[in-house]
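Please, structure for the following, as tokens.
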Amino acid sequence: MYNTQRARLTANKAFKLTPEEGNAILARAYGYSSFDSISGVMGEPVPGLHIIHTPAEILAKDPAHQMIEFVRMATNLSLPGLPVVTKGLAPRDLVACMFNFTNFDALVGYARSEQIDPHSGDMAMLSKFEQRHGIKASGQILCGRKYHGHTYVVRQDAEAFSHYLDQELCLTNREGLQVVLVRTRPDADRRINNYSREHTVLTGALRENQGSLLLGSRAKGSTLAISILPDREYTLEQLVAAHFSALIDKSPSGRSLIIDGMRLRKDSESLRAGFTLAQQRDINIVIIEAEPSAELWGMAETRLVFGFDIDLTITESAELNLVLTQAATYVGQQGQKLLFVYHTTAGGTRYTAMDLTPDTIATNVVRRVFGARLG
């Protein structure tokens, strides 16, 4: 592949490069002192230059990460303090030529051409999203698509977070999923009613056969149910058991129980019983609350921090305390953006943001922009 790129450089009539000059440009672009076109091997790395992946490795990346390599190659060709190898040619045009593009603008257009949809139902697309951004998409951590590692959310502004959650539930492609949202607010389905079709709502006291009642009320093709319960204390095991049958029915791609702002009993025994029951059928548990819990933090693979009471930040978890400290000056709502922290033990802390769709946008506009079927 190196020789192919060198041949492209020397074949470009506008460049007027000799084979030796092509070798020198190729070597410098990749961060090396020389290139042997006979053996196809690069020389020694040059201190201070970016060492670039091989062409095959670059082409295996997604376009956004390829663009990073292209920019680094152009930087290598333009750094001062080294013998000039470009013969007055624009480094960006040389890099574009190596990858068979007419100019660097065409390269940029290519890198921007692949849109990554975080609401897709395609696992290949979601994998690309995770690779590019370093976080899983909401369709996984909230709706449970091929994910059952559990998600713990700390939020202070219940209305702003509900806006985010309802938006993500409606925009996410839920084909092959079953999602049950549990809340106590009487208007718990207000925003969802604007954008989702054929979802099921059940109001009243929690019954042992809550899942069966939801199944009986479920419209054909429905993938979202909302249980609106009285505001009292529940155990996690109660909530999982009551909704179990509704979650495992017709959910080959995943299932998720979202517990939003409920008063949960926090003793270790009842929490572990609930998670154990969920694990029997790979049910993803999402727990959302205002006060950070070290117990729940340790039971979830993914943690999201949207806001918290700064006066109540000391917990028994050193990791949780550190993340809250990192999040303190970042999280919150700024205009139509919701800033939050995404954390996993393996990946550490990521600072991210989500645009909130204004409630005033007409339903048909949202459906046209984000897809016809939302329900």
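The chain has two domains: 2-113, 123-370. The CA atoms of residues 78 and 91 lie 6 Å apart.
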